[in-house]
Known about the structure:
Residues 1-26 form the signal peptide. The chain is mostly helical. The chain has one domain (3-116). It has helices spanning 3-31, 36-58, 66-90, 98-116. The longest helix is centred in the N-terminal third of the chain and has 29 residues, at 3-31. The radius of gyration is 15 Å and the shape is elongated.
Amino acid sequence: xxxxxxxxxxxxxxxxxxxxxxxxxxxxxxxxxxxxxxxxxxxxxxxxxxxxxxxxxxxxxxxxxxxxxxxxxxxxxxxxxxxxxxxxxxxxxxxxxxxxxxxxxxxxxxxxxxxxxxxxxx
Length: 122
């Protein structure tokens, strides 16, 4: 069993949790006041990356870089969305530069998917 196959269940878990969180955050943003735009941005990142992680789990055996892309996208989404949610409800973020770090991780995850197009299996 390859690393991609072993990590696929984690990607399914994150996809489901991000999908759930994305819908919940969208509802909170729609009904919240003040800094609700923070929740809308967190929702957008969760809802954009949930199906991506799902697809990476399904295609893990076909894309050699799936494990790297999924880890970067998963951690990046957690950092980005988590920082915005904590900022909205606690008044300060997770740690300095958490959201930008998460954003860069997500971008590099997408690049890992692109690089996978040029890496042959086997």
